[in-house]
């Protein structure tokens, strides 16, 4: 036998509304956690790219400095006052060339 529905109860359907609100809150919380995780992943990748670029730039600057220190031969002025001409510096000694070849 069926029992007749009581329509005078004001609490009827409250459990469904509470369950839906709880589901909504948990869904928003899960979505925000996913968003924060994705943002952190992007920030980490960006930071890694910036660090790699900085180290590459520093390595290039250091390599250029080493080249200037050990292989660059500046021109020197020689001759009398009226007859000056550019003449290269004498070649580097053997031990300096061997150090340059190892780079």
Distance between the termini: 96 Å
Structural class: mainly alpha
Low-confidence stretches: none
Rg calculated over all Cα atoms: 39 Å
The outline comes out as rod-shaped
* Spatial arrangement of strands, main beta sheet: 1-2
| Beta-strand content | 5-15%
Query: Helix coverage percent of residues?
Result: 55-70%
Number of helices: 2
| Count of extended strands | 2
SSE order: HEEH
Average of per-residue pLDDT values: 79
Instruction: Tell me about the largest β-sheet.
Output: 2 strands, antiparallel
Kindly describe this structure.
The structure is a single chain. With 103 residues, this protein is mostly helical. The protein has a domain at 15-52. It is built from two helices and two strands. The protein has helices at residues 14-70, 94-102, and strands at residues 75-78, 85-88. A two-stranded antiparallel ribbon has the order 1-2. The longest helix is centred in the middle third of the chain and has 57 residues, at 14-70. It is rod-shaped. The model has no long low-confidence stretch (mean pLDDT 79).
Layout of helices and strands:
Blueprint lengths: L13 H57 L4 E4 L6 E4 L5 H9 L1
Antiparallel strand pairs: 1-2
Brief overview, please?
The protein has 103 residues and is mainly alpha-helical. It is 64% helix and 8% strand.
Q: What are its keywords?
A:
single chain; 103 residues; mainly alpha; two-stranded antiparallel sheet; 2 helices; 2 strands; rod-shaped
């Amino acid at each position: 036998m069926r029992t007749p529905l009581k329509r005078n109860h004001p609490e009827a359907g409250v459990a469904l509304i509470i369950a839906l609100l709880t589901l909504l809150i948990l869904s928003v919380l899960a979505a925000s956690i996913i968003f924060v995780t994705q943002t952190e992943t992007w920030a980490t990748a960006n930071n890694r790219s910036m660090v790699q670029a900085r180290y590459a730039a520093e390595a290039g600057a250091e390599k250029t400095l080493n080249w200037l220190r050990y292989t660059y031969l500046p021109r020197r002025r020689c001759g009398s006052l009226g007859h000056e001409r550019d003449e290269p510096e004498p070649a580097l000694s053997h031990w300096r060339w061997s150090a340059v070849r190892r780079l």
